[in-house]
Amino acid sequence: MALHKKNTILAAVSVIALTACDGRDYFADGRAFDSWTQEAGAFVDEGQFGNPTMHNTLVQTGKRNFVVDLNNRFSNEVTPMVNFAFDSAILDGEARAVLQKQANWIRQFPEVRFRVYGHTDLVGPNGYNKTLGLRRARAVVSYLSSQGISRSRLQAVSSLGETQPLIVTQDRERRNRRTITEVSGLAKKNPALLNGKYAEVIFREYVNSAVEKPTVSGASLGNAGGG
Length: 227
What we know:
The chain is α+β, with helices and mostly antiparallel strands. The chain has a domain at about 60-200: CATH 3.30.1330.60. Helix content is about 40%, strand content about 15%. It contains 6 helices and 6 strands, in the order αββααβαβαββα. The chain has helices at about 1-20, 50-60, 65-75, 95-105, 125-145, 195-210; strands at about 25, 30-35, 80-85, 110-120, 155-160, 180-185. The longest helix has 21 residues, at about 125-145.
């Protein structure tokens, strides 16, 4: 038993000695690095360095999912949801203010289509709520169109009625009475065609950020319409 332990220790020491003398470097996880057989920079690249380049390549070749990326940006930069009064499809002042911001964002991307989903709370018959959700979605589409957005870019108007509540309750719930605007696709078949227009938008935003904006007094702002 003692002889076996002695042999094991000698073997380990031999491996360490060979490792120290073989002239190679080692990664933190013990993998050997040989500068003569691996590409330049492999020692400092632990697997993440090339990801930004890969991402850019996918974008430039049209393989990146533009719909997902743009919809994430849309929902982060503007509020995609507007709410309604009970049993109503009328846009109040708060809803119109949100939709004005949506329209301003949508105008920046003329190649992109959008879909509006209508929802209701759980009060009332399913069939009626399906129709009510559709009326709400159409009200949003009509308002966006009045802000200069072509109806051809509002790809579809859909109603999900009461099937997807944010708050599960049988009572009246304003947060469930809503529409959601989402990016639905591209007007062009080839997503790579968006690259040039996207670059124009980024450049325009960069230029506009350096321009001093005129101040508007509170007295000159009209009251938002109610409904």
